[in-house]
Amino acid sequence: MASHRYSFPNKPVANPKAVVAGPHYRFTLLTDRLLRYEWSDDGGFEDRVSTFALFRWFDAPNFRVVEAKDCLEIITDHFHLTYDKKRFSAAGLSVKVANDVWHYNGESYGDLGGTARTLDGAWGRVDLEPGVLSRKAYAVLDDSKSMLFDSHGWIAIRRPGRVDGYVFAYDGDHKAAIKDLYRISGRQPVLPRWALGNWWSRYHEYRASEYLELMDHFKREGIPLNVGVIDMDWHKTQLPPKYGSGWTGYSWNRQLFPDPDGFMKDLHKRGLKVTLNDHPADGIRAFEDQYKAVAKALHHDTSREEPIRFDCTDQKFLDAYFDVLKLTLEKQGVDFWWIDWQQGNQTKIPGVDPLWVLNHYHYLTSRRSLKVIERPLTFSRYAGAGSHRYPIGFSGDTQITWAGLEFQPEFTATASNIGYGWWSHDIGGHWGGVRSNQLTVRWVQLGVFSPIMRLHSTKNLWNSKEPWNFEKEAFKIMKDFLILRHRLIPYLYTMNIRASYSSEPLIQPMYWNHKNPEAYTVPTQYYFGPNLIVAPITSPDNPSTLMGSVRAWLPEGRFVDLFHPHLVYDGGRYMHLHRDLSQLPVLAKEGTILPLDSTPKLANGSPRPTDITILLVVGKDAHFELVEEPEGDDCSDGGDDGPGQPPLSSFVRTPITWRQKEGILTIGPEWNGSGKWRQWNVKLVGHTNTEVQEQVPGFRVTEEDGCTTVALGNVHRWNPEGFEISFGRDLQLDVVGVTGRVFETLHRCEGWYDHKDPVWDAVARSQDPVPTRVERLHRLGVDPSIKNAVMEIWSADSRSVASAKGHELWTDVKNAAETEGIEQVLKDYVIV
Length: 832
Fold this sequence. Notes:
It is a single chain. This protein is α+β, with helices and mostly antiparallel strands. The chain contains 18 helices and 38 strands. The protein has four domains: 3-106 and 144-185, no CATH class; 193-503, TIM Barrel, CATH 3.20.20.80; 511-588 and 735-829, Immunoglobulin-like (Sandwich), CATH 2.60.40.1180; 590-726, Sandwich (Immunoglobulin-like). The longest helix is centred in the middle third of the chain and has 18 residues, at 315-332. Residues 189-495 form the Glycoside hydrolase family 31 TIM barrel domain.
């Protein structure tokens, strides 16, 4: 086996101009805000690659050293280090950043949280490992115990007793901290386009014919899929006792899959990629189809049928594992592997975590599949800082509870604090818990606005996520959202490129973009790309309003809800947002461009769209550059950009620009593309009160549900150098019609008719000053949720007649799961 098969880009030795060292200590100033600190009893220091640090060579920053016999100071524009030249201690080593001081304690610190290895068994919240972001002016990442790699890319171990860590001195500049995290640890790779669509997964003893029929059922329902996940029952699981557990296996269960090659070929014909589940801990045993072939490669004696032990620290074993065992299955049609490691974090070499080894070498080995999957890819659990280099993450087996749903958006957002941007959750939950139409719908909505959308459930007769197995309303909503996920792929793929090349993960906590204290108080709310704010609803619908609700914080500006374009919000405040089961709050800033795949009939595999609709939120200038994979998608080794990472200049780009004052939209010209035929449409979201038809004679214009749509046709037909169209000068979002919206809300509320009149009087009939009417509403003895739902509309838009913005009063409405206990919630809200 060629030695380069495990190689990967790295440059671990630091710039000597950035190093300050003594007999037992070494400080490396990677930037004037990022410091590496090392202590060594033996006087040696670590210059090999660690699982966290691949690139330590940075240009030397400006810094100043003040040194005396027993004291060393290192000073930059951003931090001041003080050190007594002795073994690191809290008293002897400190770093002052702004008004905060870090004292060495040998631990990682980042109080905004990072992520966790797994959500296995989680009912709700779990403890998070720290990221590199903090409310303090500093964060610390201790790298002393991480696995290393030698110059050939193979496993290496640290010398015991050495200290190796990093101080991130970014004082609230969270994006700068993450950019430098990626600089030292490597960027997030680009995902293949199809990975951003819908995945189907279920732990179930499928027969091949049953699985194929299920895929065809999705097609008949018009729900596109891109990935077929086959859980562990693809292989033999019922074994003679002498072989042990059936958890590990590499031989097809021929009773379920009599023709594996044909089965996977049929899935590929349907436009699906295939991944198989692998629990590798028990190695290769004598019952396996490939036992003798692997034994031959390893010179293993088969006469006693002794198992070939799994040993990821043995390069010869790993070579055989990949090049005999797994390659045979890949030639049958397996596109990538689901590495479902659940057997601990120890190997025969102290400090070597098998999950790290599996993730790293599976990812490198997946390069050989690039003709099929376009980019290296794995599917596995998080192993620690640096794991972002091996997408996609499998977050584990959550229980099906409202508490589990409520924690998941926060868990996804904080993962970006350690650079981990591509979690795949068990959407709908894995096991236990309850069957609930509401809970499943809300989870699917979250999944559509998550990094990866994978439906999943455990082996249970009653537990599966086929949308048509739920009640009629829930089925329709889930179907609509699963279709929407595929329509979002032009946007998601562009965000995929942005994540890799611009160090901007798709999902970002609010405080990444706003220094306001309020941004830290809404952990379940996040940015989904640069201009969309998602506030998932993670609690049952209220029995009076028939809506779910969430407390959100909106930054300064004006926003429109993509699912409810009649609602426009002024920002700079908290709001209580209410939505029926068919909607969740997705707020777009003025000046947003969002391209959707509007191809009438979506296909599995997500080919490039032939029809694109641009969602345009007017009110501010806007620009979006649609990015698509290179023509031919050349995935040759990217050199310093990483395996399978093409140069940024090779991607197809289509700039889309809105000039607010002139009212002109420009599409193109397309760069690096073929200029093939494509239908374009523009939907003005939340804008209907202008005669657009007069501005665009000759184009078909329709108005529906708070939006105006213009069908442009094939813009390249007119001008291959770019296309311009004027919709009218300085267009604005529609003003919220308070009385009409409040009437709709009150009308559908369930409860006493007599309770509606005083609410309506306060909002629509009274001539008293607005503050007096708001106070009257607040004091009414009606359901607090109704008052909040009314107040949301009344105070949304300051331009509305008699708007309550600036006078709003919110009633405290706790989550039903907190106030009544889970048993009561299940009794009242869950459909069994």
